[in-house]
């Protein structure tokens, strides 16, 4: 699995967009970028994933650079409930379901 | 749907005792996983299963055993608990990743285990 690098912490004002970066410069052509989040003391929650095209769902948007070496998770209107640790994970389908969690980014949404 | 449930939610063991953690899912998922999370760390995969009757080792399998006798259940056993196994244990499940729509892994609420 490719290694990912994320900032350890970020702040965001409530109602503003939260942009969480992730570097994955050694990503392989068949590896996807997944984002999960973990609200304090709870199990992680799947957010979104993508291969090379930008993706959007009801929770967030995922922007992947053309060279696929980095990506950004966007929470368009952050709320206090979005305060959590966000994990960027790179995984290929041929690697089964195994997820390799790094340290993640601790996002604090402030009023 | 209850999703992924874990039993028990909390447990305190003495060194050398044994116990079994139960994970159950009602989503008909093929894949199931056990992770542990130590304070301030990300999750680490202990064991996983790609289907009923199959198991495989993850990143940190030592000191643990697993069984998948039924598709909906995945058991994690500690034969002789050690203080180093004090952690929060999360179970997860997913569909076969390589087919159809990948909706990621669904996680249970966790089991907080303390070994004294």
Write a structural description.
The complex is a heterodimer of chains A (111) and B (116). Chain A is an all-beta fold. Helices cover 0% and strands 47% of the residues of chain A. Chain A has no helices and nine strands. A five-stranded mixed beta sheet of chain A has the order 1-9-8-3-4, with no helix packed on it. Chain B is globular. The model of chain B has no long low-confidence stretch (mean pLDDT 92). With 116 residues, chain B is an all-beta fold. In chain B, the strands form two sheets. In chain B, strands 2, 4, 5, 6, 9, 10 and 11 form a seven-stranded mixed beta sheet that branches. A four-stranded antiparallel beta sheet of chain B has the order 1-3-8-7, with no helix packed on it. In chain B, 0% of the residues lie in helices and 47% in strands. In chain B, 34% of the residues are buried. The A-B interface holds A 32, 34, 36, 41-47, 49, 87, 93-94, 96-104 and B 4, 31, 33, 35, 41-45, 48, 50, 58-59, 90, 92, 94, 97-98, 102-110.
Low-confidence stretches of chain B: none
Overall radius of gyration of chain B: 14 Å
- Computed Rg of chain A: 13 Å
Shape of chain B: globular
Query: What topology, given as strand order, has the largest sheet of chain A?
Result: 1-9-8-3-4
Quaternary structure of the protein: heterodimer
Note the total helix count of chain A: 0
The residue fraction in helices of chain B comes out at under 10%
**SS strand fraction of chain B:** over 45%
The H-and-E topology of chain B, N to C, reads as EEEEEEEEEEE
SSE run of chain A: EEEEEEEEE
The N- to C-terminal Cα distance of chain B equals 36 Å
Task: Please indicate the percent range of residues of chain A in DSSP E strands (runs of 2 or more).
Answer: over 45%
